Amino acid sequence: MDGVTYWFRHTAEPRAVLLGRRFTANVLRDWGLEHMSDPVTLIASELLTNAVEATGSTKAGLSRGERETLPLVAVRLCLSDRTLTVEVWDSSRTLPRMRTLDADAENGRGLPIVTLLCERWDSHRHPSGGKVVRAVLPLARGAADEVKDAAEPDPRATRAPSSTNSRCALADPPTRKR
Q1: pTM, whole model, 2 decimals?
Q2: What is the chain written as a DSSP string?
Q3: How far apart are CA 38 and CA 57, in angstroms?
Q4: What pLDDT is stored for residue 59 in this prediction?
Q5: Rounded-to-integer distance, Cα 172 and Cα 160, Å
Q6: CA atoms within 13 A on the CB side of 69
Q7: 70-97 pLDDT per residue, tens
Q8: Residue 75 forms beta bridges with which residues?
Q9: pLDDT in the model for residue 60
């Protein structure tokens, strides 16, 4: 099976996390991978939260004018024969790192959660700006062959061309047209 890819992009604000979770759940449902919804949506949510905190605004209820000044964040879901990959892009060049947490810390748990839920994760600076954080989850044998050939799961989602490369690699980051 060639790779199947869906994108979601939004301004770097708290609402992006909720909408990214919905996008992820919808794509998984359309792919017939509902059984992976809990861990994959949690991974997407944690990585998006980190992206918003790194580049956008954590303030709720932004005005339209405030939203227009924010950079974008993006989620890309890629399905290959053996893996499901979640990639999150943001405009910061600072790579994420695990922190040692106090038991009563209120944040900083995102990457430890991602580490527990996926087979592996990594990050890299993107050549055209920003960074990509990628989490890879294994698929059960034959699961990718059973993926439904469904319509776009969300109006904001865009399907990227299929690729024979089973590695999911974020091509060009989303840009905001001014």
Answers
A1: 0.78
A2: --BEEEEEEEESSHHHHHHHHHHHHHHHHHTT-GGGHHHHHHHHHHHHHHHHHHHS---SS--HHHHHTS-EEEEEEEE-SSEEEEEEEES--PPP------TT-SS--HHHHHHHHSSEEEEEE-TTSSEEEEEEEEPPTTTGGG---PPPSSTT-EEPPPBS--S----SPP----
A3: 26
A4: 87
A5: 11
A6: 5
A7: 999 999 999 998 999 999 999 999 998 8
A8: 8, 88
A9: 85
Instruction: Tell me the C-alpha to C-alpha distance, in Å, between residue 69 and each of 16, 31, 54, 55, 86.
Output: 15, 35, 15, 11, 26
Task: Compute the C-alpha angle 74/128/79, nearest 5°.
Answer: 45
Residue with tokens 């301004």: 11
Q: Give residues with Cβ within 8 angstroms of 161, minimum separation 6.
A: 5
Contact 61, 107 (CB under 8 A): no
Q: Is 84 exposed, middle or buried (0-12, 13-18, 19+ CB in 10 A)?
A: buried
Measured in residues, the chain has a length of 178
How many whole angstroms separate alpha carbon 130 and alpha carbon 13?
17
Joined tokens for residue 157:
């989602």
Low-confidence residues of the chain: pLDDT under 70: 1-2, 101-108, 141-178
